[in-house]
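In response to a reviewer's request, we include the raw inputs and outputs for one of the modeled complexes. The two entities were modeled together in a single run.
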Amino acid sequence: MTDRSIVDERLAEVLRDERGRLTAALVRILGDWDAAEELVQDAAVAALGHWPTDGIPENPGAWLMTTARRKGVDRLRRRARYRERMEQLTREATRMSAHVPTEGAMGADDRLRLLFTCCHPALNREAQIALTLRTIGGLETPAVARAFLVPEATIAQRLVRAKRKIRDAAIPYRVPEAAELPGRLQEVLRVLYLIFNEGYLASTGDASERRDLARDAEWLTSLVLRLMPDEAEVIGLLALMRLHLARFDARFGPDGSLVLMPDQDRSRWDRSAITDATQLLARAERMNRPGSFQLQAAIVAVHASSPSWATTNWSAIVELYDALQRLEPTPVVALNRALAVAERDGPAVALAAVEPLSDRLDGYHLFHAARAELLRRVGRPADARAADERALDLTANPAERRLLAARIAQAGSGRSEGPT
Amino acid sequence: MMLIAGSEEAWDRLGPEESQQMMERIGGWWGEHHAAGRIIEGHQLQSVATATTVRRDGDGQATVTDGPFMEGKEVVGGYGILDVADLDEAIAIASSWPAPDVLEIRPIVERD
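The model returned the following structure tokens for the whole complex.
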């Protein structure tokens, strides 16, 4: 007999690591997304029945795959109603029992194909995220719902709709060809970074669950890197995530409130993780294919290697933003660049760079918060206060609201709204 | 099914020579995909000025009005029926359409 709680724990662990791979292999064989997920679920239920009495198998992933496969064959047999389909089903069943790798390149390829399907541009962003977390990340639907603070039914519906579109619109299940790969990979990386940010930036909900979400995104990215080791931007994104995670603990005060980077206790940053991530980034840079994730990681690396906010190498940061702006000429990048300029050249220069962005960033609370801080520093407290109030109107995030409200209350002695 | 929509105004702004060149490019493009069996059939439609909308309500009443059923800058100007294996193939074909238009791809309902 094996203790029930040990079985539960081991099974949860195995599912977390293997669900994506198992589902991917079954989707490839069955061509049916829902059936594949159900089979993995059925296999997990079977494990709960068998493992407590038979003991946990030596290779639990292989055990689950064998079980899911057997159940799949049963299902195909049950579904076989027509003679002409029988032949095909027998062929499929033979293929299934003959050739289902549980490890190695094929399993990895399956997951990569599935990831590209999940992040296909014909699906909307919410669907891409939900599918990726559910199918590749192995999160249960309620966990996906909690992560995005939306009702479970909404996520369930998103998943159903997305799977229906994959089937009805014939979204293919494969890694895109070389010609379309860069654009499609970019799409995958964007989805992974959004998932990461949802865990890293949002301060509502359960803190440990949020950190798990950020770690899930980091794990998925490391998986992509294992499967596509020669893509500089994948390395860049992974380094970026790890540099952020290395500072995770310092971002919250004892009462759970947000601590901005200038005020963070840098002794709480994970130095060895920062060193590792910086070395990883150097590997990407040697590939000589710059990209926006590499540049963002390089910016965070400059911060991470500075002993203090005041001694930060602002010229290096402004230069990196210049390069980023050439690749991504967006107003948000321009705003962040201006904040670095404020540290290098003073608030007046930065304010002049920020004002022209007001048309395009009027609905973005961090624009108003940043502008407020600059106005305060050039000695225009009344304008600063108005900008802070506008920022407060625009954000629902409780930690950010607390911060802004405190700043308005103090009227003038507030702290910079810098990167967190 | 690939629906092709675009701005007629933009077309009208083209000079006769440019317009001719564009039509030739589209003709060549179409011929190529048709010959390869990727486009089964399709047509260019007459200008939206010729459009008539019939709106049939639940009581069996039909109202006929002048113009397209949706007013917009972009109007449907043609369609093609594709024979492709999956969405990516359809996207690849639509992406190579030689004119600055908007294309919507949708699977056709197949009944046995």
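As requested, we also summarize the result in words. The interface with chain A takes residues 85-88, 91-92, 105-107 of chain B (CB under 8 Å). The CA atoms of residues 12 and 19 of chain B lie 8 Å apart.
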